């Protein structure tokens, strides 16, 4: 019971700290003509909602690639589309084609911050907790302390909740991949890492360990047999 209380406190502090950072301004606020990465993420919601899929990555009359062209892999695009559908329910002006360019308001900032927090709570935070309790050495309290240190890492928190990005999604998916491989669920781990790679190309940095581990396991089991 005590361990569950510590875990709950750990998660609560992680979420509270993230939300506290989000009250600050974001990259490019009030700075036309580009308005920073916050506007890039909003603009991608606008594009994916209003344009057909085959236009998302190409320069067209309605898609000026010089203005925050969509340059992340397809899973990011579909994530933007999902957020856009929700945004449309709150305020259609947030994703109105062309007219929403550079849109800024307190309510929209609250919505965008909430999408990052929800994504972390759904993908990144559970992966961190499971990783620490399955693969970290030490007592339960030491594992909670490790999870707390990871969740409170200021670099990721400031980039995602201050500057404004969704790095927790790709890192969380990659960590789910590590969990899968570590537990012997190679197919699950591979799928999770492919999703991470299809969310953000930054995950190429982590591709070599996954490749070497899986190749080594194939060789160990025999290339003509189970491997």
TrEMBL record:
Q: Which reaction does it catalyse?
A: an alpha-D-Man-(1->2)-alpha-D-Man-(1->2)-alpha-D-Man-(1->3)-[alpha-D-Man-(1->2)-alpha-D-Man-(1->3)-[alpha-D-Man-(1->2)-alpha-D-Man-(1->6)]-alpha-D-Man-(1->6)]-beta-D-Man-(1->4)-beta-D-GlcNAc-(1->4)-alpha-D-GlcNAc-diphospho-di-trans,poly-cis-dolichol + a di-trans,poly-cis-dolichyl beta-D-glucosyl phosphate = an alpha-D-Glc-(1->3)-alpha-D-Man-(1->2)-alpha-D-Man-(1->2)-alpha-D-Man-(1->3)-[alpha-D-Man-(1->2)-alpha-D-Man-(1->3)-[alpha-D-Man-(1->2)-alpha-D-Man-(1->6)]-alpha-D-Man-(1->6)]-beta-D-Man-(1->4)-beta-D-GlcNAc-(1->4)-alpha-D-GlcNAc-diphospho-di-trans,poly-cis-dolichol + a di-trans,poly-cis-dolichyl phosphate + H(+)
What span is annotated as the signal peptide, if there is one?
1-22
EC numbers listed for it are 2.4.1.-
Q: Which Pfam families match?
A: Alg6_Alg8
Which domain of life does the protein's organism represent? Eukaryota
| Keywords, ordered alphabetically | Endoplasmic reticulum, Glycosyltransferase, Membrane, Signal, Transferase, Transmembrane, Transmembrane helix
How would you describe this protein's topology in the membrane?
Multi-pass membrane protein
Q: Which InterPro entries match?
A: Glyco_trans_ALG6/ALG8
Q: Where in the cell is it found?
A: Endoplasmic reticulum membrane
Pathway note:
Protein modification; protein glycosylation
Q: What is its main location?
A: endoplasmic reticulum
Keyword Ribonucleoprotein carried by entry: no
GO function terms (MF aspect):
dolichyl pyrophosphate Man9GlcNAc2 alpha-1,3-glucosyltransferase activity
- A GO term from the CC aspect: endoplasmic reticulum membrane
Tell me where the transmembrane regions lie.
110-132, 144-161, 173-197
Role summary:
Dolichyl pyrophosphate Man9GlcNAc2 alpha-1,3-glucosyltransferase that operates in the biosynthetic pathway of dolichol-linked oligosaccharides, the glycan precursors employed in protein asparagine (N)-glycosylation. The assembly of dolichol-linked oligosaccharides begins on the cytosolic side of the endoplasmic reticulum membrane and finishes in its lumen. The sequential addition of sugars to dolichol pyrophosphate produces dolichol-linked oligosaccharides containing fourteen sugars, including two GlcNAcs, nine mannoses and three glucoses.
Q: Which family does it belong to?
A: Belongs to the ALG6/ALG8 glucosyltransferase family.
Q: Which PANTHER family does the record cross-reference, listed alphabetically?
A: DOLICHYL GLYCOSYLTRANSFERASE (PTHR12413), DOLICHYL PYROPHOSPHATE MAN9GLCNAC2 ALPHA-1,3-GLUCOSYLTRANSFERASE (PTHR12413:SF1)
Q: What is this protein called?
A: Alpha-1,3-glucosyltransferase
Native organism is Danio rerio
Q: What is the lineage of its organism?
A: Eukaryota, Metazoa, Chordata, Craniata, Vertebrata
């Amino acid at each position: 019971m005590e361990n569950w209380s510590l875990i709950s406190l750990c998660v609560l502090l992680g979420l509270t700290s993230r939300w506290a950072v989000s009250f600050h301004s974001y990259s490019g606020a009030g700075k036309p003509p580009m308005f920073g990465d916050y506007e890039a993420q909003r603009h991608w919601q606008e594009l994916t909602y209003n344009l057909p899929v085959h236009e998302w990555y190409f320069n067209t009359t309605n898609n000026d690639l010089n203005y925050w062209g969509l340059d992340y892999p397809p899973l990011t695009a579909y994530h933007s589309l999902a957020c856009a559908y929700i945004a449309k329910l709150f305020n259609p002006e947030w994703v109105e084609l062309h007219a929403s360019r550079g849109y800024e308001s307190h309510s929209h900032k609250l919505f965008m911050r909430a999408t990052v927090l929800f994504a972390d709570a759904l993908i990144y935070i559970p992966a961190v907790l499971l990783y620490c309790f399955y693969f970290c050495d030490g007592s339960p309290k030491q594992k909670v302390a490790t999870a707390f240190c990871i969740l409170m890492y200021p670099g990721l928190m400031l980039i995602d909740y201050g500057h404004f990005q969704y790095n927790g999604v790709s890192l969380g998916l990659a960590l789910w991949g590590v969990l899968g491989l570590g537990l012997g669920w190679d197919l699950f781990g591979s799928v999770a890492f492919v999703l991470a790679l299809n969310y953000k190309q930054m995950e190429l940095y982590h591709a070599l360990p996954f490749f070497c581990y899986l190749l080594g396991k194939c060789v160990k089991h025999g290339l003509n047999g189970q491997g």
